[in-house]
């Protein structure tokens, strides 16, 4: 439902699954660059955990010189860092894969962004010290449950290579858009890993452990792996950096428009560098024009808004295509990299329009 056509209407999250809760952002009806927490997409593997702020502590252990337990007040006293960053579910646009793949059938709304404030994970690790030979940092959440493929109970846990964990913009966040992080998005502490897909940004942090061997938890070694073969696990590799991508917000797919002038608008983003150009075709890829990128001087972890003025005088059916390119010369491909679990879809964006 368009709030522009129905002034009293308000967009709402789009339900993909109720238990556990998985809902996507109504990205086509979002007009700003910072998403209110009520419209931020929700991706859960299990039910929400039960936590109390008063009994919350953050242990850092493993291959460290001096294991420590931090209170939230300890963390709030440390020098903070605020970053605006895209968080994108690795399964965003999964519904577009052909042949179809199993999993939550996300359309275009498994993505949101806003301002995160917290303490660099590096700061806490410097206070504990890291032993020689350490290779990864494991972050475990309080959310847990039984997996359908394994006969056991697991907490949600992921690891980062030491280099990524020590990046100054990898933060343990406690605020979102100048307010405490809402419970459904990881309160009181969650990890934010810019440039990587959202599975790395663990919510409701239970503990941080430094290890000297590869972490093999199921959300590291089974899920969030690219499996290019349908029948076996050959040539698999881990999901990490966000692919260059774009979404058309206006007009809507299958919309009917009049002849005349129309503004085509949307967002583009990447996990490497920044968006250097956005190209648009209104004739199914026969010719391409440059869209106007409105905020190229922004922080590199954000999405880039773009627009294009389309003058159409002939009635008929049209396919609009958008292709983003980043500063590392990566462009959206014509066809997606098909993989069995449906991660990282980033093929050229397409919608169909009828002019009457």
UniProtKB/TrEMBL annotation:
Its cofactor is Mo-molybdopterin. Residues 45-218 form the Oxidoreductase molybdopterin-binding domain. Keywords: Metal-binding, Molybdenum, Oxidoreductase. Residues 240-355 form the Moybdenum cofactor oxidoreductase dimerisation domain. It comes from the Bacteria. It holds the Pfam family Oxidored_molyb. Gene3D superfamilies: 2.60.40.650, Oxidoreductase, molybdopterin-binding domain. SUPFAM superfamilies: E set domains (SSF81296), Oxidoreductase molybdopterin-binding domain (SSF56524). Signal peptide: none annotated. This is Sulfite oxidase.
């Amino acid at each position: 439902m368009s709030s522009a056509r129905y002034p009293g209407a308000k967009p709402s999250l789009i339900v993909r699954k109720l238990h556990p809760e998985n809902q996507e952002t109504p990205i086509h009806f979002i007009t700003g660059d910072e998403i209110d927490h009520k419209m931020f997409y929700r991706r859960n593997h299990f039910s929400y955990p039960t936590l109390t702020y008063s009994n919350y502590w953050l242990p850092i252990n493993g291959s460290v010189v001096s294991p420590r337990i931090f209170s939230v007040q300890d963390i709030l006293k440390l020098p903070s860092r605020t970053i605006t960053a895209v968080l994108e579910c690795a399964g965003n646009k999964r519904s577009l894969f052909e042949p179809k793949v199993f999993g939550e059938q996300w359309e275009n709304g498994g993505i949101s962004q806003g301002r995160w404030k917290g303490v660099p994970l590096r700061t806490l690790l410097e206070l504990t010290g890291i032993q020689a030979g350490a290779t990864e940092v494991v972050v475990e959440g309080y959310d847990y449950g039984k997996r359908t493929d394994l006969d056991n109970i697991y907490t949600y846990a992921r690891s980062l290579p030491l280099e990524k964990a020590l990046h100054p913009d990898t933060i343990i966040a406690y605020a979102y858009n100048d307010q405490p992080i809402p419970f459904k998005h990881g309160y009181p502490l969650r990890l934010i890993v810019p440039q990587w897909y959202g599975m790395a940004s663990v919510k409701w942090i239970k503990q941080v452990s430094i290890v000297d061997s590869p972490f093999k938890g199921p959300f590291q070694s089974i899920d969030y792996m690219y499996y290019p073969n349908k029948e076996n696990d050959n040539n698999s590799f881990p999901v990490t950096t966000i692919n260059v991508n774009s979404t058309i917000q206006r007009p809507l797919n299958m919309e009917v428009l009049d002849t005349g002038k129309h503004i085509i608008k949307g967002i583009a983003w990447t996990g490497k560098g920044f968006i250097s150009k956005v190209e648009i075709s209104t004739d199914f890829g026969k010719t391409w024009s440059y869209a106007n990128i409105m905020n190229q001087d922004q922080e590199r972890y954000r999405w880039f808004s773009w627009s294009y003025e389309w003058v159409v005088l002939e009635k008929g059916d049209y396919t609009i295509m958008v292709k983003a390119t980043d500063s590392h010369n990566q462009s959206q491909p014509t066809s997606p990299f098909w993989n069995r679990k449906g991660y990282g879809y980033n093929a050229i964006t397409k919608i169909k329009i009828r002019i009457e």
